[in-house]
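Schema walkthrough. Field components (list of strings):
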Amino acid sequence: MISSKKALNIILNKAKRLGTQTLSLDDALGFVLAADVKARINVPVFDNSAMDGFAVHKENLIGEPLKIIGEVQAGQKAAVKVSKGKAVSIMTGAPVPAGTAAIVPVENVHVEGESLIIRKPVLLGANIRKAGEDIKKGSVVIKAGSLLKPIHLGLAASVGESKLKVYNKPALSLVVTGNEIIEPGKKLLQGQIYDSNSYLIKNLLAELSIDICFFAYSADTLAKTKSVLRKALSKADIVITTGGISVGKYDFLSLALENIGAKCHFNKVNQKPGKPLSFFTYKNKIILCLPGNPVAVATCFELYARPLLLKMSGFSQISRPRIKAVLAQPVKKKKGRASFIRVNLAQKNGRYYAKPTGRQGSGVLTSMVADGVAVLPEGSGDLKKGQFVNVVDLGGEYR
Amino acid sequence: MISSKKALNIILNKAKRLGTQTLSLDDALGFVLAADVKARINVPVFDNSAMDGFAVHKENLIGEPLKIIGEVQAGQKAAVKVSKGKAVSIMTGAPVPAGTAAIVPVENVHVEGESLIIRKPVLLGANIRKAGEDIKKGSVVIKAGSLLKPIHLGLAASVGESKLKVYNKPALSLVVTGNEIIEPGKKLLQGQIYDSNSYLIKNLLAELSIDICFFAYSADTLAKTKSVLRKALSKADIVITTGGISVGKYDFLSLALENIGAKCHFNKVNQKPGKPLSFFTYKNKIILCLPGNPVAVATCFELYARPLLLKMSGFSQISRPRIKAVLAQPVKKKKGRASFIRVNLAQKNGRYYAKPTGRQGSGVLTSMVADGVAVLPEGSGDLKKGQFVNVVDLGGEYR
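Field assembly_structure (string):
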């Protein structure tokens, strides 16, 4: 059976960036930048005042009386000029007049009519923000490949960009298999269970700014499965399925995929949960088959689907952050198989402690309300309290 | 001057939860649950098979030959009954027939026509998921006050809920002041700068699932400022402003707010960046006035606006996670004033190391492309390399 590490490598090797599009700053959050943003201007554009105060000449940096000869507001040109014995009233952000050596803050002067006395000496250059001090014209402000966050969009705006070239997000189809699955809100008949996987996956995708372009439940017959898969593939760059991939008599997914000409790259992974995880390609399209158990779905989404989708979205840093944490209790583990344990995290004296969230069965969805997933490699056996483990940080509020 | 800690307390004391609404699972991501979700069913609903295999009787757990008398698929009723000497073929997730003591996995049996031989003995109860094993009917599945993440929405679906009662998000107006501010994409005239604050704030709000119900640029005149504020207040639970709040001659925001009857709670905070931060209320509405400098805006949004908005959204855990990190280089700091330093984080042997992102001036927006903000309290002076600092984790990919 293939290892978890090898499975991820095979998946990522098939993941290709898609095309690009140009989006306005209002729509680009969560997309990946496809071309460097270079500053077309200096930031600040011009030398400007960091304070409300008075622009003074280099020979008037201490206490002598000065004559106020004008004013510059933010958004105005600096029409006046500062010379020896003269000061100009200036607002925060306003352009610094020619001849200015420093800005004296308004709190440090005494004004009487048109006359000004500096009460606290000021250093040469004080409170002047120099043109290009933050960003030099022509320099790269945001590198291609960045996942766009609010601060990036603010930065792009500050250099005057209103649109950004970004990588397309993959078009994604979701197929939930299983005769026993019904929608929440409906009445359960005997033998039926509520669909939780599609709600879990839809919302995990929303966090990646990926919409679902085609969704279907598929009953467990070969003909129905093939027809649904054909539709799903026709619309999408990637199809994600849940269930129907195990060795059961009515698990038609593998057969259906082979029947329509998809190529299987692996159909089982040496891990728990998520052993039935399978991976196919069809022409340039990807089919990732998640197991049916909700915990296996949640775990395999985090460890396989998320990096795959981020890579298809053009992002290179495709893994969640990992934390090295100290096990807060012993953990039983079968040697020879990777194991993913859901844990909560606590911080103490700058170290993290990881505690399993309780029963770890693959039907136990409550165990996924967790801060992280501890990745226990194949080679490891039982773990003792106090051992370090690698934890995939799911981005909680635990600290 | 009021301390940063006191300022936050004053703000949070005025933040009240708003009303509630009922949303479908497709729309509830990022909202805060307003009432406990209690399970109306057991999960699993019924005893079911964890494997594809055969249901066997308690007296047939080892190797004797058995007669296969029927089959149960997922989604079907278990119409047949298991008795001594008889086995029933069963699929993963299918209800366990009466009389079943264990499920023998299909990999561990030898089948010939209607006859079955167990090749590997099985323990009593093996591979049966018991009804209520994950969630007991009537138990609380998600607590009121939880910020809804994908896993919660999957959990709600698994107990059959299709809608959830959540707290309303605040209706928010954004007002950007400053004669010098123009929209990105337009040509800069002398003395003008591009608006970055509104793009920064809009996208920070998007991450909190909060829409802007009213947006305006406001020129620096008293009449215009008052009129824009009145409109902003009429539509919103909270108004956020940027700029115009300092001591400058053309900073009309405070005066305008007082003129229209708003109450000032503080108009300056002993911190850097963000000293001009001001806070008003008008009837039951909140007005948070951020400074004009982009770095002060980004920092004050993180430290004040975000907790405020989360509390108004019904969330009690309103702070970003904090990390105790080791300073990777010395930091100069004026004693007697809180200071917020943007840092990048690196992990080594289970410890975090914090390194300032470079020049920390309040116009230096590039310094905000950071993993976190180190909060240096008022009492602290210069800091040495190796000292511990508290870092607000901005949720990056640094680990």
